[in-house]
Fold this protein.
Amino acid sequence: MYIEQLYTSCLAEAAYYIESEGEATIIDPLREIQTYVDMAHQRGAKIKYVFETHFHADFVSGHIDLAKKTGATIIYGPKAQPAYDVYTAQDGEVFTIGKLTIEVLHTPGHTPESSCFLLKDEEGKNHAVFTGDTLFVGDVGRPDLLDGVMTKEELAGMMYDSLNNKIKPLSDDVIVYPAHGPGSACGKNIGKETFSTIGNQKKTNYALQEMTKETFIKKVTDGILPPPKYFFEDARINKEGYSSIDDIIARNNQALSEDAFKAEIENGAIILDTRKPDNFEKGFIPGAINIGLNGQYAVWVGSLLNINQPLVLVSEEGMEEEAIIRLARVGYENVKGYLAGGISSWNESLDTVESVSPKQVKLTNEILDVRKGGEFNNGHIEGAQLVTLSEMPANLEGLDKDKTYYVHCAGGYRSMIASSLMKRAGFKNPINVYGGFKAMEEAGLPVLLPTEA
């Protein structure tokens, strides 16, 4: 038996490779599939099945391309009705991979078709459960993504039954392999580990504690932030099908001259600058939005930009295709090309963002904290105003564009995104704070903690 978790930090997503006796299966693959094909080839195995835990909302799965390339069968749990050929399994149905078996556990709650896959070893003993977005480390999947088709309370009630009837009865030593880790918007507050055990989750996960269904529904639905804008579109893409990733790369990976780049901007394209914040601040094309490849790039693009918005890219030379692939992972395919030669080939004036160390922050100026509300409530700089990045630019309307604002997040990645959005909106002097809240606290700036706030 061979199991490998293939974790992609920038999406906080986990896919899985399982193999026995020359047969392999992939669970919840990313859109670019070559990694899985290469793994199987190198290990002398054939991919037999591609299991999908549900219609993912936060990324476009590679299941269709992988099945076409390998001849594998796509398997969903009950109630899935995609617009392409799959095998829809029954609750409790068992599939064989070499000397291993996988049992389908239908666990509606996150979505109606959500299913977990219980892996049994060569002796038939329960070894691991692949929980998709049903159960995370320290959390469960959000029940509010059906956009009015079902209420979040209805889905949360289903989740309660699924957890109590299918998940909690499993032995404490069964390994829990979820589809997401920390940073994913598919849960409220996912723990930092990317796998766990049933026993550990029974002790530490709030959703697995003994409580009534009514209490569970209230706990699970309380405090859910609005889903990122692209979630519903990605779920639709996964259900209806999509173009090959190879076709997307061929169409979008186009080098544009300066004149062609300008023409796309005049036709409505937004400039997405994917360089690191430290490079972006030194000089960027006016109006560009900085979302660097060094962070949760695709997640923030999906949270801030319309999925149908045409884009042109500015990237470090050699990183253009990477930027395009990672956009395609979340369904962003309307890329008109990238600036050939990168920022050094731009012959007109550049804009800049000033950045300072925490010790240079003047408390007489306004401080904008662009973290999430929960982060802010756990401790913030005295006098800071919460202006959450995910709600920009709408929440900038009450601010004075002529004022100086110190902008910070937790570490510096989100604050540069926010600063670029402010610049694009006409703010004259947003100042980015290096190191974010932690560095500001360490520098001795006055902090209000929860008991004081």
The chain has three domains: 2-232, 243-345, 354-448. The chain has a mean pLDDT of 96. The domain at 354-448 is CATH 3.40.250.10 (Oxidized Rhodanese; domain 1).
